[in-house]
Design brief:
By secondary structure, the protein is of the alpha/beta class. It is built from 18 helices and 18 strands. Helix 2 runs antiparallel to helix 18, helix 4 runs parallel beside helix 5 and helix 16 packs across helix 17. The structure holds zinc ion (ZN).
Length: 524
Amino acid sequence: MKHGIFIFFCLMANCLFAQIEKAPEIKEGLGPFPQLILRGLTLINGTGAPPFGPVDIVIENNRIKSIVWVGVEGVPINPDKRPKLKEGGYELNCNGMYALPGFIDMHGHIGGKEQGTPAEYVFKLWLGHGITTIRDPACGNGLDWVLYEKKMSAENKITAPRIFAYTVFGQGAKNGVNTIPDAINWVQQNAKNGADGIKFFGAPPAIMKAALMENKRLGLRSACHHAQTYVAQWNVVNSAKAGLTSMEHWYGLPEALFDDKTIQHYPLNYNYTNEQNRFEEAGKLWKQAAAPGSKKWNEVLDELLALDFTLDPTFNIYDANRDLMRARCAEWHPIYTLPSLWKFYEPSRESHGSYWQHWGTEQELEWKNNYRLWMSFINDYKNRGGRVTTGSDNGYIYQTYGFGYIRELELLREAGFHPLEVFRSATMYGAQALGVDSVLGTVEPGKLADIVIIDANPLENIQYLYGTGAIFLTDDNKIIRKGGVRYTVKDGIVYDSKKLLEDVKKMVSDAKKNSNWQLKQPGE
Ligand SMILES: [Zn+2]
């Protein structure tokens, strides 16, 4: 999702970036320590291995030094078996808790003026949900802005995940990118400017090909939202062959699967800038493609698998399309959604992703069926060894940062992934797609210390990871909230995830007080 229209207009108008407040320079979290021992955890290490524990995880500064098996389940731990705390070290009692690798959000926009979401708000929602790495697929606040935040995060001067900056193709080009030499120059300049990669929305075939090949030659990575405006000429298979790293969302994939047409069945009064048209018709797209298990379906799967291509479906950002009230009335909105962001979500002919001019039973039904087919493809791809990653695209369509990411994990589960497969996508596969799997993505000795700690088993219920926790009835008939990430460790620094979310709550309640604002449903 995201900016299709906004970005295109912005590029054409060469407008100034709608920047937002940078994150404040406050040292939060504890550490890093010369030695940090996280004690008594059950570990889900991100590789697909089953949980094991209890283990003590020993960290030195920002590196995982060792993972020590200190006993077997249900037997008291022999203290002699445990690693000893060195002088100046710090230990955290995590008895009975679960640890996973830090989550990677492969599609993390850092908000903007339109949403009125300061960086601190977005970053704390992410870290508060265990997200320790994000890929910004647009740099909507400008590359310099993102690179500054990236540097501050790398130096741990701000409370924020690690950032990978992918610039929108053509961003900043005064006269546009119209020729092959233009494309090659732009790609080379983008690398010089310090970007980690490129986010494409599509372009004429010769330009896409030249840009993708040059970017790959330079060792950078790429992502593409195959916008409808180019997809008849250049679909996902074309991109994968030319060296694209990951496809975002799903556009361009059903088109690659057409076997009885070459163009989507657009109604004759369709207009792409009318978002009701755009999103309503998109819901009828998968049923126009080759059927699951058909020859064409298998050919496209095989071709993408052979190219080691990454699928980043961002299921959650379209979740409202199949059940608008569910997304709109999520229990976290009154507490965690800023008034300005709520306003941005409301139906509007102008805001991107706010296309609910008339959305009801018929549209939702189409989208429910659309998801079934889309999910079958994603699950088949995973089952044949393909890499599927987790991206949220949050800040649009009633998906608030952090919460939408956890919803994405639930939707991979719905697509047919085992929870261990879900967490592998959220961690190891994300690191592979970013090209940083030698240092991130799993909890193993030698890796950087990015770890999520939670006081509940997230395999049993992914909803435990929501900042609001999950409803649970105790043996003595008390209703409690179970879960919510307890600690997020990034670079060996221990953040109290619940405290980060408390900060967000306060930002939201202050914003409401200052504007005398009350949450109302649209049209009330
Ligand atoms: Zn996006």
